[in-house]
Design goal:
By secondary structure, this protein is α/β, with parallel strands linked by helices. Helices cover 38% and strands 14% of the residues.
Length: 284
């Protein structure tokens, strides 16, 4: 995929920098979802292929950067809700992506100092940033696991997780804009069911997912651009997203456009301006 934009003055173009990341197993020659998202959020940990992909998607949906920020804002509101209203004191953040302040542990600890957080991702560049983040946050009870969301049993057996989280106590599971990376044939619903089953009563899930429901044509162009760049990106309908919560109690207002889920400052004029469904649910 090519782009006409000149990225020569942006970070990630220094060959020495790219070579250093490649030494840690980072493929800088192909776009990666975490780095594309970082680009949309205005971050600096992305490379020309990530920005080319981000720009190609932006051509299909010009407001995609604003949508990414709304998705991130939902995460902040959901974490605060879980900490304040549900009393959650430990979180499992799957597909965490490149750290972007405020991060989950920062939001949760502002409500309850000492909250424990496990971050999980499968990108080496996320690992490097997460380790630096943990070092720079004295007193935080956080850890990072380099693992695959598609292997829940291995994840819950990881000593780093079991030494940080008490799985006999409620956990806040975050699945923020990550399940679209799992194709239907790989059955993301079964994988989420495994995650749900591993959590005790009182646990909660906060989840967002891109959807074609609000703009079928534009979102199909995005999915095509992703496929051409070698990325899996599967938008899903409200009904398909609701299936991820099977057997759990949806918290009001249920599966909603992310901008309409307990918004700060009142309901926005157009809550469907960000093409994501979002919801929080509780295990009875």
């Amino acid at each position: 995929m090519t782009s006409s934009q000149d990225f020569s003055d942006q970070p990630g173009n220094d060959p020495a920098e790219q070579s250093e990341w490649e030494r840690f197993g980072v493929d800088t020659s192909a776009p990666h979802s975490a780095r594309v998202y970082d680009y949309w959020l205005g971050g600096k940990t992305n490379f020309p292929p990530d920005r080319a992909m981000g720009q190609a998607i932006e051509q299909a949906i010009p407001s995609i950067k604003a949508m990414a920020k709304e998705n991130r804002a939902f995460q902040g509101r959901a974490v605060r809700y879980l900490a304040q209203e549900q009393g959650i004191r430990q979180f499992l953040d799957l597909g965490t992506g490149i750290p972007t302040s405020p991060n989950t542990h920062e939001i949760a600890e502002a409500v309850s100092p000492g909250t424990r957080v496990v971050y999980v991702d499968n990108d080496p560049i996320v690992l490097a940033h997460a380790r630096a983040l943990m070092v720079s946050t004295p007193g935080s009870h956080t850890t990072y696991i380099h693992a695959d969301l598609g292997k829940p049993a291995e994840l819950f057996a990881d000593p780093a997780l079991t030494s940080t989280l008490d799985l006999d106590q409620p956990v806040g599971l975050l699945l923020i804009a990550v399940l679209m990376l799992i194709a239907d044939q790989d059955d993301p619903w079964a994988k989420v069911a495994e995650l749900r089953d591993a959590l005790p009563s009182g646990s909660c899930i906060a989840l967002t997912h891109p959807t074609q429901d609000f703009d079928p044509e534009g979102v199909e162009k995005v999915a095509q651009a992703a496929r051409q760049g070698g990325m899996t990106l599967v938008p899903r309908s409200r009904e398909e997203v609701t299936r991820f919560f099977d057997g759990w109690e949806l918290i009001e207002p249920g599966v909603s456009p992310v901008m309409a889920w307990r918004p700060d400052g009142g309901t926005p004029a157009d809550p469907t301006a960000a093409y994501y469904w979002g919801a929080v649910a509780r295990k009875k």
